[in-house]
Specification:
Organism: Nocardioides salarius
Largest sheet: 5 strands, mixed
Shape: elongated
Radius of gyration: 36 Å
Pfam families: GGDEF_2 (PF17853), HTH_30 (PF13556), PucR (PF07905)
Helix content: 40-55%
Number of helices: 19
Domain CdaR GGDEF-like: 302-435
Distance between the termini: 57 Å
Strand content: 15-25%
Strand order of the largest sheet: 2-7-6-5-4
Domain Purine catabolism PurC-like: 12-133
Number of strands: 17
Structural class: alpha+beta
Protein name: Purine catabolism regulator
Length: 551
């Protein structure tokens, strides 16, 4: 059970003037339980009528003379256990009138459960206790509301004065004494007030990826225990649009109801700022996208103008680079259809991920969203410690661990570009690499234009029917869409891959050598003497690649 911090700890309540003479009989370890109210026990079956964090007080009369719901004498031990299970703060009883002493076994149980049992003096007036306790609670509640209102006013003022998300995060962290992250909907950091020790604690709890993404899918909106503390996540939403996430982390305590209320207020204010930032970003992205589209169409001007204008946008196009085209993969056959709005939200999340990763690089990697694809101009750089180049590192950073609702995507990489004049051709190369790579390798692929080989030529054939006709002419019945034809094509490809080494091809397909010899004879009856005619083998190899690319 979450222990609220806006209640009064029981040990503090015992210091009130009206609690003079109260003794702690058992359960000293539970004196830090929070008290939200005081209730008086008047009936034996009180357990069903109490609330969590109540302090229950009694004269002892219901315990001495009453019957419980089962028709038997009230069991003090069972009552203590029931009240503890229901989350009460403690039980106070007047000794000497109806109950003289408490059974040592009951006191031992209370100690075991850390459930405070208090001995109340006979002179203690319950009405005075109630008045003082609720007076103290009202004072504290008023302070909590004032703190939340003050935070809301401070955050609103920050937004009106042009503050950013980092300032909002810092203010929330200061007022609530928490570590704070503001992330995208898939967990990419947009702002933070999170000291390194707290960040390390989240990494140890497997809530932060090595790349810094917070695993929002593991937190959702339910509290996540981390050691003695807790992490909570609050969606930042405006106009029905999911914009971002506010993550708060306390390493030493569970977050209270007032903390959650303050997070909700902060999320509301943050939504105003995020909405404004996204509106500005949309305009900037359109402006940058229009410029880059003109560059790719060869109508942006000479290289000097393109380089200078790119510099005004914060882009450096002076060095060698690769054009990278990235597209979300189509829905898998077993996935249900989705609306256009959902598809667009996926694309926006995808483009945001690329933009955040690229803008975090130094120098900044130019990136734009072209409605159905994201294009980035990636400078050439040295391989990392793992041997991965700049493009591979970018792709890996965007992919992460595929959490946060991220979709699989395919990437195409152009040849090396050494001047702005080559960007138009390089863009076409990147798009061609994406298209062909997805057909040959399937989804979630990264394909370089220089690695396309013969597929590059096949993809350039403008009429797909002509390429298909060539494959049918060469392969004959092997071009049919049947299981037998597909099986023979596999054997044929295996033979070609191993330079017609029948023994090796048989071993790779787990066939007997004589079985493979029979298959070779059958293939030659269908195709002709491909084992002795190198030109025919070339035609067959190309035709097999046509079928692979066009299916």
């Amino acid at each position: 059970m979450i222990s609220p911090t806006y209640g009064v700890p029981l040990r503090d309540l015992l210091r009130l003037e009206g609690m003079t003479g109260v003794t702690v009989l058992a359960g000293h370890g539970g004196l830090d339980r929070m008290v939200l109210g005081v209730n008086v026990m008047e009936v034996p079956d009180i357990a069903d009528w109490v609330k969590p964090h109540d302090l229950l007080v009694t004269t002892g009369f219901p315990l001495a003379s009453g019957e419980d719901q089962r028709g038997g004498a009230v069991s003090f031990a069972r009552l203590v256990r029931d009240l503890h299970t229901r989350g009460l703060a403690g039980l106070g009883i007047k000794l000497g009138r109806y109950v003289d002493t408490l059974d040592p076994e009951v006191l031992a149980l209370a100690d075991e459960l850390d459930f405070p049992v208090l001995g109340l003096p006979m002179a203690l007036a319950f009405d005075e206790l109630l008045r003082q306790a609720y007076g103290r609670l009202n004072e504290l509640t008023s302070g909590v509301l004032e703190r939340i209102d003050a935070l809301h006013r401070a955050l609103t003022l920050l937004v009106l004065e042009g503050g950013d998300l980092d300032q909002i995060a810092a203010e929330v962290a200061r007022v609530l004494d928490l570590g704070v992250l503001v992330t995208s909907t898939d967990g990419r950091e947009r702002a933070a007030a999170l000291p390194d020790p707290l960040r390390h604690r989240l990494e140890q709890a497997d809530l932060l990826e090595p790349g810094g993404r917070f695993r929002v899918e593991r937190a959702s909106t339910r509290p996540v225990p981390v050691g003695d503390g807790e992490v909570r996540l609050q969606p930042i939403v405006a106009g029905g649009t999911d914009l971002a996430r506010l993550v708060c982390f306390s390493p030493h305590r569970a977050l209270s109801h007032d903390d959650v209320g303050a997070m909700e207020r902060a999320a509301t204010v943050a939504a105003l700022l995020v909405t404004r930032q996204e509106a500005v970003a949309a305009v900037e992205n359109k402006y940058r996208g229009d410029f880059l589209r003109d560059v790719f169409l060869g109508r942006a001007g000479d290289s000097t103008y393109v380089t200078e204008h790119a510099a005004s946008l914060g882009w450096d196009l002076g060095g060698p680079m690769h054009v990278v085209s990235a597209e979300l993969d189509p829905l898998a056959p077993d996935e249900p259809p989705v609306s256009g709005r959902v598809l667009r939200s996926w694309q926006e999340r995808f483009a945001t991920a690329w933009r955040q990763v690229c803008e975090g690089r130094r120098p900044v990697v130019p990136t734009v969203d072209f409605t159905a694809e994201v294009v980035a101009l990636v400078p050439v750089g040295e391989p990392g410690p793992d041997g991965a180049g700049p493009v591979d590192r970018l792709v890996s950073a965007v992919q992460g661990d595929r959490g946060g609702g991220r979709r699989p995507f395919s990437v195409g990489v152009s040849r090396l570009v050494t001047s702005p004049e080559q960007l138009a051709e390089a863009y076409l190369q990147a798009r061609r690499a994406t298209e062909v790579g997805r057909r040959v390798k399937g989804g979630s692929s990264t394909t370089r234009f220089d690695d396309l080989g013969v597929h590059r030529l096949i993809a350039l054939v403008p009429d797909p029917a002509e390429a298909r006709a060539f494959a049918v002419d060469v392969l004959g019945e092997l071009a049919q869409d049947t299981e037998d034809a597909a099986d023979l094509r596999t054997t044929l490809q295996m033979l070609l891959d191993h330079n017609l080494n029948v023994a090796e091809a048989a071993r790779r397909q787990f066939f007997h050598y004589n079985t493979m010899r029979y298959r070779v004879g059958k293939l030659e009856r269908i195709l002709g003497p491909f084992t002795t005619d190198p030109h025919l083998r070339l035609d067959i190899a190309v035709a097999l690649q046509v079928l692979q690319l066009r299916t």
